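Student: Please help interpret what follows.
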Amino acid sequence: MRAVVTGGAGFLGSHLCDRLLAEGWDVLAIDNFITGAKGNLSHLADNKKFKFQKADVSKPLKVADKWVTCCTSPRRRVLPIT
């Protein structure tokens, strides 16, 4: 299975990425680093099941995945993924 984790470089998002990967999921983390940190994901850089995309989810974003989790900062408005 594949998952998209918005806010993936944040505290909650990075831990969710860890959990999903441990369960065998392919994970795409999306973050714009407003509140997240690259260091939260650095240990996943060599994981073949992990991908990262720097993007702002308040702007339209296309993904081809079935499961999307949202761990983005509440200070930003989040629009649906199209």
